[in-house]
Amino acid sequence: MVDEQIINLYWARDERAIAETDRSYGSLCRGLSRRILKNPEDAEECVNDSYFRLWQRLPPERPNSLGSYLTRIVRNLSLDRLRQLGAAKRGGGAITLSLEELEQVTGRGDVESRIAAQELGAAVDRFLRTQSEEARGIFLRRYYFFDSRSEIAARFEITGPQVSVVLSRTRKRLRAYLKKEGLL
Q1: In terms of domains, do 100 and 175 share one?
Q2: Computed over its alpha carbons, how large is the radius of gyration of the chain?
Q3: Distances, alpha carbon 175 to alpha carbons 12, 109, 132, in Å
Q4: Which long-range CB contacts under 8 A does 119-128 form with residues at least 24 apart?
Q5: What does the pLDDT look like over 35-64, one tens digit per residue?
Q6: Which of 44, 60, 138, 183 could connect to 178 by a Cys-Cys bridge, CB 3.0–4.6 Å?
Q7: Residue 170's closest CA among 97, 103, 105?
């Protein structure tokens, strides 16, 4: 079933919408949440909470991309759960490392909430549209989906050091872009 049909089910308040959403996006959502939380039970709970949140928001909202809209909900709920569990404060995890790398771009703490800010998010989106498909993909896999460098290297068929170089250069360009936009 395509996104528009699933969204129409939500608008009709048809409970099949959740089953169709899970069929289309369940594995993506569970994978994203597991990558953040490192716990299958917590991840499953976040995915179910995400479906409930989606049910509450549709209608009145009508997203252009159901997958993007849903993964944003899953990601945010999973990060909230991680904070609740105190894992982010303990440090050392891949999520903390990814967020610390982005913190170097902005020069400020609490990157999760800053990235969620509409103005900064829109600027990052505009910046990413100017980058090569590979650089954009690597950046998103690292900082949105929290893939490890080795997972990114395998996905893009490049070496780990090449991934590090692409990420470093992209962060530098992003910092310059945000300065130019007056956001730093």
Answers
A1: yes
A2: 17
A3: 44, 15, 17
A4: 119/183, 120/178, 120/183, 123/177, 123/178, 123/181, 123/183, 124/174, 124/178, 127/173, 127/174, 127/177, 127/178
A5: 999 899 999 999 999 999 999 999 888 998
A6: 183
A7: 105
Do residues 165 and 95 share a domain? yes
- State which residues form the domain around 84: 3-89
**Cβ pair 167, 142 in contact under 8 A:** yes
pLDDT, one tens digit per residue, over 117-162 is 567 778 888 999 999 999 999 999 999 888 999 999 999 999 999 9
The model carries a pTM of 0.71
Q: Which amino acid is at 20?
A: E
Cα 156 to Cα 30, 46, 138, 149, 165: the distances in Å are 22, 29, 8, 10, 14
Structure tokens, 112: 């999760």
Rounded distance, CA 128 to CA 130, Å?
5
The domain that holds 158 is classified in CATH as 1.10.10.10
Q: How many residues does the chain have?
A: 184
